[in-house]
What we know:
mainly alpha, 2 strands, 63% helix, elongated, TRPC4AP, receptor, phosphatase binding
Amino acid sequence: FFFASQFTETFLAERDKQSKWSGIPQLLLKLYATSHLHSDFTECQNILKEISPLLSMEAMAFVTEERKLTQETTYPNTYIFDLFGGVDLLVEILMRPTISIRGQKLKISDEMSKDCLSILYNTCVCTEGVTKRLAEKNDFVIFLFTLMTSKKTFLQTATLIEDILGVKKEMIRLDEVPNLSSLVSNFDQQQLANFCRILAVTISEMDTGNDDKHTLLAKNAQQKKSLSLGPSAAEINQAALLSIPGFVERLCKLATRKVSESTGTASFLQELEEWYTWLDNALVLDALMRVANEESEHNQASIVFPPPGASEENGLPHTSTRTQLPQSMKIMHEIMYKLEVLYVLCVLLMGRQRNQVHRMIAEFKLIPGLNNLFDKLIWRKHSASALVLHGHNQNCDCSPDITLKIQFLRLLQSFSDHHENKYLLLNNQELNELSAISLKANIPEVEAVLNTDRSLVCDGKRGLLTRLLQVMKKEPAESSFRFWQARAVESFLRGTTSYADQMFLLKRGLLEHILYCIVDSECKSRDVLQSYFDLLGELMKFNVDAFKRFNKYINTDAKFQVFLKQINSSLVDSNMLVRCVTLSLDRFENQVDMKVAEVLSECRLLAYISQVPTQMSFLFRLINIIHVQTLTQENVSCLNTSLVILMLARRKERLPLYLRLLQRMEHSKKYPGFLLNNFHNLLRFWQQHYLHKDKDSTCLENSSCISFSYWKETVSILLNPDRQSPSALVSYIEEPYMDIDRDFTEE
C-alpha cells in the first residue's frame, strides 16, 4: 500500500498549488512508478536528485543556530515526504538487493543508495517519529550494516544507524549482522573509528546508565531475571566483537597513534567534504572549520571549503596556494576518533571477558602508547582558539577536549581496579622504586610487581600514574576533572593494601594535596569530596607514615575542626575514610612499636576516632541515613562501615555495650525501636545480597583485612532471634516496638 498512489497526478498538482507541497507528492508518484522490480533505476536516481535538495535545506536549517530563534518552525517538505509514504518507499528501494529474481539478486548503485540514505536521514532529523518507525523494522536495521561495506555509502549509513539505534527499544544483536567479522576486518582505521560510535550503543547495558543510583533491590531482582534469561544483548555483542580477529589490537593502535601518523591531508579533506554534505557531524565540522579559519588567518593558509550545495564535480579546490591542514584541525580530528575508541575499550574492560581484554590491552601496549600521547594530545594546553563544539564553552562537559580527558580517566580507573596489570602504569625506574620501598621497610615485595612484564610498562621519564598526579595537583579548585582524577588514582590503591604503593604516592605529595583541597580550599562539590575522602582512606589505611604526615599538615585545632566539619557534612561521602581510620586505629592499638605509639599519642584524628561517643555518633547516623528500599551501590558502604565498627567492638567483647548505647540514643530521640528495627532489616538484606553464590565477597575481605567468615558470623549473631542473647538486636527492641519481619522485597 503506497499512500501517494491513491491520488491522480492531476489532483495532486491542483492541491499542490493551494498547499505548497513543493511538488513532492508528484515526485513520489513518479518514483513509485519507476522503481518496479524490473526497472534499471536510472529514472529513479534523477527523481531522487530532485527530492534531495528540498529536504536537505530544511534539515540544514534544523541543525543550525537559527532554529532556536523560532521555536514553532515547521518542516513541511520532510513532513509531506513522510505523509505520502516516501520513507517506506525508500526503505523498500534500499532493500531491493535482498530480493532475488530467477536466482539473480537485484542491484542498485552506491550513488542511489547514498541519495536514499541522505533523504531518510534528513527526514529523521526534521520529522518526529520517523526514526522510531525505522528502528522497529529490525530487518532493515540489520540490512543497513551491509551497506557499510562500500566506502561511498559508509558515512551516510553509519550516521543513520547511529540515530536509529539511539531510539531503538530493544538492543540490536551484532551476531545477526551477516558476515560481521569480514565487514569489520575490511574497515580502514578511519571507518573503524567511526564504527565505534555505533558500537558504543550496542555494547553498553541499556538500563545501567546511572549504576550507582539504582537501588540494590532493583539490581538484585534484575540479576535474578537475567540469570533465567541468559546473557544480555550487550554481553552477546561484546563477545561477538572480541571474536573478530585483531579487533582489540586495531582499537589499541587507533587509541595510541600520534597525530602525525593519522590520515594524510588529502583524504582528511575528502572526509570533511562528506561531513559537510552530511549532517551527522554538523556541529563537529562547525568546530573544525572555525579553528581552520582562525589559524588560516594567522598563517595565510588558504583552506577553502565548498559552499552549501556545491556539486561534487567542483569538490575541493586544487589550488597551488593551499597549504597544509592546520595542526589543531588534525588534533581535533584525532580527538573525535579517540573518544569513541576509548569508550569502547572501557566498556569491554568492564564486561564479562575482562581478563581476556586486559591481556590484550597489555600485550598491544595501550598504556605506554597513551603515556606517550599524554602531554601532546590528552592533557595538552588549550590553544587560544578553544576547540569546542558550536554553542558550548571551553569548560563545558560537551567539549571534545574535556570528554576525551574524562574518557581517558575512566579507562585508567577500569584498568587499575583490582587488577595486577595496574603496575603497567609505571615505568621501569618507578617499579624499581617500589621494590626499594619494600626492601627498606623490610617487607616482602608485592608479587604482582615481581610478575610485571617489564617490556609492556611505560617508557620515558615518567609513567602514566606519575603524570596523572602532576596534572591533578595543578587542577583548578572548581575543575570537573578532580572527581575523575581522584577515582583513577584510588583504583590504583584498591584491593589488598600495599604499603609500597601508598609510600610511592605519599612521597609525591598526594596526601598534602588532598588535605589542601578538603581543608584549605574548603571544597563544596559533593562528588569531588567523596572521591577525595575515598582516596584519602586508601592512602592512609594501616600506614603510620601517612598518619604522621596528616598530623603534620593538620597542625592546629582550627584546621582539624574544618576537616571534621567536612567529614560530618555528609557521611555517605566520608564513611569510607571513617572506616579506614577505624580499622587503622584497631591495628595500631595491637602493635608494639615506638613509631606507632608516638603516632597514637599525637594524632588528632586517631584520638578523635578512639572515643566511644564519637564511634556511637557515627554508628547511629550511618544506620539512620540508609534503608533497604534506598540502598544503592553508592550508599551501601554506610552499612558496611557500621558493621566494621561493630565487628571491632565484638573483637573487644564490647558488642552488647554498643547495642545498649544505640538503644539509649533511640530513647533520647523519643523514637524507641526505629533505628534497631531498620538495622535488623538492613542486615537481613545484607545476608541476601552478600551471601548470594554469584557475589564476590573478596572486596570486603581485602579492604578490611577481616575474614569474610567473621563478617558473616557477626551478622548472624546480630540477627539471632533469641531475646536472651546479649549480642542480638532483638534483645534491645522492646516488644511493643518490634517490627522486624517485614518483607522488604515486595515494598
